[in-house]
Amino acid sequence: MMVSVLIVGQPNVGKTSFAINFANYLGVKKLKLLVRQPAGFMATKTYQLEEAYEELVAVEPHKTTEVQSIQLKLPIGKQDKKIRLIDSCGLVDEIHSKQKIRTAMAQTLNQLFQSQIILHMIDLSQFDFFSQLKKIDQELYNLFHQQPGYKILANKLDLDHQKNNLTKLESLIEQKLIIAISALYQQGFTEVKTFLLKNV
Ligand SMILES: Nc1nc2c(ncn2[C@@H]2O[C@H](COP(=O)(O)OP(=O)(O)O)[C@@H](O)[C@H]2O)c(=O)[nH]1
Ligand SMILES: [Mg+2]
Question: For the domain bounded by 3-199, which CATH number is listed?
Fold first, then answer.
């Protein structure tokens, strides 16, 4: 059976950037994405990496309104293990006003309970040193932190120059659950790969 790896988190934390750049890191040249069409059915679309980046990474939140998945191969010894990396719609605290986004969020929640591995992404640059976790992040953490396949990816490490926010985050949640990464500069990807290899 193919293992499902779900990337989840608030909008704009870097989920899609991670999915594309992690695929690149694993040597994927073309991305075949399974995209849910507005009518509800799934269709495969093939992208070159740069093309995928342009089309799918957003400056404004909620560009990714459909759950999309990428098939990846993790090298295990001489064999490859296939995984399905699922990029999800961002989850927010409030009930969103747009029906399309509410539907996408419901899809994400559904996926959460069907995925063996959950990569919960938090943006270190949005994380306020003095504050607690956002409600939705706290809830995800409470629900899943005792599962072996759960990790927090603390993203945009490149913007946390003094590492202040990372230090604060590590004081709030178990340090061993955190991998600090930069989805943009592929920092921390080796650790993510090691974690996946242990859990597939
Ligand atoms: N500096 C920095 N920016 C990032 C990083 N990852 C993503 N971004 C930027 O954050 C914005 C949102 O990224 P996107 O992948 O669309 O986020 P998503 O909504 O969670 O899928 C884009 O402008 C990205 O270029 C990172 O590691 N470092
Ligand atoms: Mg996205």
Answer: 3.40.50.300
